[in-house]
Amino acid sequence: MKKVVISLFAILMGTSLAMAEDAGCEAFKWPVTREQALFAEAPSRPSGAMLAVGAAADLALLPAEKAGFAVPPERAPAEGTFGAVASVAVPPDGSIQISLSGEAWIDVIQDGKAVKSSGYSGVKTCPSVRKSVRFKLAAGTATVQFSGAKKADLKVAVLAPE
Fold first, then answer.
1. Could you give the CA distance from residue 106 to residue 115 in angstroms, rounded to a whole number?
2. Are 71 and 113 in contact (CB under 8 A)?
């Protein structure tokens, strides 16, 4: 009987935790289920990598002072934080959504200038996705800078907005 009670308690706790996790992630302005699935199997990539639209990467970050930013980040990174630079091939319609597993600032650079985001959603209660930012860009290549991260790795997904 004791084993049955313990098993039922474990099932209820697991269900409660899953429901709490889902509720936290549902607080985003748009769904992040694609990011959650991609982050689970994100391959490791170094700073400087090309990020593919429709995929995720577990990006290795460098100390911010060694990240090699193309332009100074809009928010100056705090001492002791990490950053990286990557490239992305922007699709013809120009819309991309960049989602991160942790806290970091995102700057997207085209034609030597930072591009303002067209949408933002961030949630601290979702354990796998911290923020998601949308950009409207010109087709072609863009540079993406990540700065101010407190850890030396960051999962990044680049997707077409839903």
1. 10
2. yes
pTM greater than 0.90 (yes/no): no
Asked whether residue 156 carries a pLDDT value surpassing 60, the answer given is yes
Question: What pLDDT, on a 0 to 100 scale, did the predictor assign at position 1?
Answer: 53
CA 11 to chain centre: 31
| Interatomic CA distance for residues 58 and 154, integer angstroms | 6
Q: What is the DSSP string of the chain?
A: -HHHHHHHHHHHHHHHHHHHHHHHHTTSSS--HHHHHHHHTPPEE-TTPEEPTTEEEEEEPEEGGGS--SS--SSPPPTT-EEEEEEEEE-TT-EEEEEESS--EEEEEETTEEEPPSEEEE-SS-SS--EEEEEE--SEEEEEEEEEESSSEEEEEEE---
Between CA 123 and CA 36 the distance in angstroms is 14
The pLDDT value given to residue 11 = 46
**Cα 108 from Cα 31, distance rounded (Å):** 22
